[in-house]
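Backbone-to-sequence.
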């Protein structure tokens, strides 16, 4: 390839970091049949720039003009001001012409290709074709009839959406495009009769491992949740009746299911009717979650369903929430029908067969240096936005395949999704804390500027090239010249894992997960990286040292609580776990208010967050106008949080429990149990109230019960003296059942002796958090009032004490990256990724 002088003279490789070059080599640079790299970074970026710029010839531009556009595109990318998404990086200028990262398909309620063009297995084949070319797929399965329902044409019984989702899942498992595994988003509307099976699918049945799953939440459901009400179940607009549900139940129990369920022992029906009481039960928990209304239709109780969703998300990070009515209030093509699905990471709500044409501006570069710091460079931001919109509109023409329906829809809509990366880096340069009011205001200003400029450039392109073909009947068909746009939508915030690694910045609008982390570089070597802005700040403050860096690393990469570091720096350099979930949501909402599409972002929570915290986050996200959200609690079992420091292998050592003085203060708590009243004495550290030992006595009970109680307390005391987190100890004890009947109390049902001991310790932890240890010990509180308040709190939820901070979150949970096996997975931008190598599940 003959390269122009500006490319030959470019010192790009000298300007790129080792990590940037390593990512390009692993993910994007062209290889020959033997797997050997045959181009360098500047050759790849020039090929991309030239391939996309050449599209201008279709609109009457000369070779000289195209040459200038090519150079403009090249400079934007090599200066790391703008980068397109991965499929453009990988496929532009190659035999594979599909340049989009993800798509939405539309499975219909049919398995006969002659009966429906979108039959289920036809969509499986289309999804396989997309995954083969490196794309991801999103689906809404709500058109598929409920499990147990009668199928007139075949005179059989439907096996339900989940069984067919498994076919999509298996196809994804088989197909692997290079180093990129296919990803899926599966959505089921919350009013679908099989919604409870869907909610439990991943957590209980461990199915759909290649899917993110999200509840298609409606305003009716959210209103019912907020206002203590009910919402109806329905299928294709028809209410689910009592007779329908009883028929489904009978067909399932008699094992009449067809499809992929033939010959299998069926799972029980998810909803069971108590006809005498007119109530509907969740068969997984035997919990009352609904009713049969006066019209004989089935309705579910909003708070009960939300509790189950939040509980499972607390455990596994699934399911997420997609707010369908919020999406459709901003549907740019209402004449094409409602939008029912998103791409796998949730930032692109799309009509069937539309695609994600993605690219991101590097906000870290959109600042200019002053004598005493930085300020936003608004001119550079606007110029780069215009270049990016031109580039991305051309991508719509350059992309071919992977199936004809997608090609046609893309050219009809001409959707683009311009987003950002490096938001955290911009804030660090501006010395603005991520969770501050100033940051939220700046987010509004930055995204508003990008959104407005993108629309202006789209109008300009429309004047030269024409509006998008589906313009008539769209929300832009107003008669106003300022609404005559080239692209049906222009802005979004997508995951930027790999391209952010190329740019050397934080992903999307996420905060850094750690200020110190490890990266894989050439030859398999792992190097420790320190946030360069932090390194600079520590040196400016005269406190930089390797010893201090070690202390930060051992603190999980957080500066919080390290006394040598000024409070101002602790605020500025907060990491994801230092930030309250509400502030994560406020930042996301600030960007969402100025977007055409949506935001892919993870709401990070510490390990000690409660189910109620998760539920409140979902409600806040809805109330703040988000179109969807993903919540990840540190340590939830599906994805584990990155271990930021890699310990050397050492000889096994054992922890010896601390010795305690002969005289120590204690707190006594009276606790109800199935065996009678139990008096629990908790010996505490007089300095901070930390529990050291637990002793308990029961009134009238046998020797065996006394022996069991003594054993529980001895082991619990050993754990506490060995430094085990008291909240973890509570989690291990709470909810253990016994053969004797549980006892209802003001604080909820107490199921056993261990449950009672755990409840007592939990009450103490809540009391010192809410009222302070000193006040508790010195009698500066009304003990009867405290007992009442704690009991009421326990009754409302699971009662876990949670400040939703990073005090207990030191990145101690981790699973290895499946690719490099050296790093650990994190959950960021709504996606599983390794921060040590280029692996991404999306």
């Amino acid at each position: 390839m003959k390269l122009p002088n500006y490319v030959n003279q470019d010192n790009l490789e000298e300007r790129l970091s080792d990590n940037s070059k390593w990512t390009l080599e692993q993910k994007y640079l062209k290889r020959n049949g033997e797997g050997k790299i045959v181009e360098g970074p500047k050759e790849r970026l020039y090929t991309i720039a030239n391939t996309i710029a050449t599209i201008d010839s279709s609109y009457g531009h000369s070779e000289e003009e195209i040459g200038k556009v090519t150079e403009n595109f090249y400079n934007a990318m090599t200066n790391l001001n703008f980068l397109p998404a991965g499929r453009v990086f990988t496929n532009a200028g190659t035999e594979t012409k599909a340049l989009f990262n993800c798509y939405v398909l539309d499975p219909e309620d049919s398995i006969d290709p002659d009966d429906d063009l979108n039959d289920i297995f036809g969509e499986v084949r289309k999804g396989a074709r997309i995954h083969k070319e490196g794309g991801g797929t999103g689906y809404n399965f709500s058109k598929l009839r409920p499990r147990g329902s009668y199928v007139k044409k075949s005179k059989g019984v439907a096996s339900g959406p989940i069984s067919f989702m498994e076919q999509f899942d298996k196809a994804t498992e088989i197909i692997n495009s290079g180093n990129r595994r296919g990803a899926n988003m599966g959505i089921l509307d919350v009013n679908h009769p099989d919604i409870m099976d869907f909610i439990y699918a991943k957590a209980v049945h461990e199915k759909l491992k290649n899917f993110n799953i999200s509840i298609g939440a409606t305003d009716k459901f959210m209103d019912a949740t907020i206002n203590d009400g009910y919402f109806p179940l329905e299928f294709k607009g028809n209410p689910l009746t009592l007779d329908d549900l009883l028929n489904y139940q009978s067909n399932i129990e008699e094992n009449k299911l067809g499809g992929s369920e033939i010959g299998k022992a069926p799972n029980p029906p998810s909803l069971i009717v108590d006809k005498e009481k007119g109530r509907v039960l969740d068969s997984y928990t035997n919990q009352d979650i609904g009713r049969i209304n006066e019209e004989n239709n089935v309705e579910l109780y909003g708070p009960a369903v939300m509790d189950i969703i939040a509980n499972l998300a607390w455990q596994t990070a699934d399911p997420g929430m997609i707010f369908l009515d919020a999406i459709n209030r901003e549907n740019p093509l209402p004449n094409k029908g409602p939008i029912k699905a998103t791409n796998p990471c949730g930032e692109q709500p799309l009509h069937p067969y539309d695609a994600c044409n993605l690219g991101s501006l590097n906000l870290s570069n959109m600042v200019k240096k002053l004598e005493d710091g930085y300020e936003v460079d608004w001119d550079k931001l606007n110029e780069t936005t215009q270049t990016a919109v031109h580039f991305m509109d051309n991508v719509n023409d350059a992309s071919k395949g992977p199936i004809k329906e997608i090609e046609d829809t893309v050219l009809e809509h001409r959707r683009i999704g311009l987003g950002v990366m490096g938001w955290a880096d911009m804030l660090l340069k501006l010395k603005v804390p991520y969770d501050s009011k100033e940051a939220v205001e700046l987010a509004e200003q930055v995204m508003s500027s990008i959104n407005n400029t993108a629309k202006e450039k789209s109008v300009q392109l429309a004047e030269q090239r024409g509006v998008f073909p589906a313009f008539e009947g769209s929300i832009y068909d107003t008669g106003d010249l300022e609404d005559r746009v080239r692209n049906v939508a222009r802005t979004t915030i997508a995951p930027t894992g790999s391209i952010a690694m190329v740019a050397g910045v934080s992903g999307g609008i996420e905060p850094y997960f750690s200020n110190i982390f490890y990266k894989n570089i050439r030859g398999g070597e792992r190097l420790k990286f320190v946030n360069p802005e932090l390194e600079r700040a520590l040196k400016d403050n005269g406190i930089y040292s390797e010893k201090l860096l070690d202390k930060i690393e051992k603190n999980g990469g957080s500066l919080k609580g390290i006394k040598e570091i000024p409070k101002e720096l602790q605020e500025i350099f907060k990491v994801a776990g230092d930030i309250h979930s509400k502030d994560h949501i406020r930042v996301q909402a600030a960007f969402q208010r100025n977007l055409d599409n949506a935001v892919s972002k993870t709401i990070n929570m510490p390990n000690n967050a409660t189910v109620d915290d998760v539920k409140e986050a979902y409600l806040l996200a809805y109330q703040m106008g988000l179109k969807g959200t993903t919540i990840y609690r540190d340590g939830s079992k599906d994805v584990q949080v990155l271990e930021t420091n890699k310990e050397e292998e050492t000889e096994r050592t054992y922890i010896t429990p601390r010795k305690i003085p002969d005289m120590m203060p204690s707190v006594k708590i009276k606790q109800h149990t199935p065996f009678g009243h139990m008096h629990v004495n908790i010996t505490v550290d007089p300095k901070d109230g930390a529990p050291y030992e637990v002793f308990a006595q029961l009134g009238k009970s046998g020797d065996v019960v006394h022996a069991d109680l003594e054993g529980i307390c001895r082991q619990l005391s050993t754990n506490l003296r060995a430094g085990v987190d008291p909240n973890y100890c509570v989690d291990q004890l709470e909810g253990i059942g016994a053969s004797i009947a549980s006892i209802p109390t003001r604080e909820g049902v107490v199921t056993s002796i261990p449950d009672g001991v755990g409840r007592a310790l939990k009450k103490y932890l809540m009391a010192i958090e809410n009222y302070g240890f000193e006040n508790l010990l010195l009698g500066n509180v009304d003990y009867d009032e405290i007992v009442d308040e704690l009991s009421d709190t326990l009754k409302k939820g699971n009662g876990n004490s949670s400040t939703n901070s990073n005090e207990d979150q030191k990145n101690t949970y981790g699973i290895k990256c499946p690719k490099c096996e050296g790093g650990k997975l994190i959950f960021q931008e709504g996606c599983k990724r390794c921060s040590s190598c280029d692996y991404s599940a999306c």
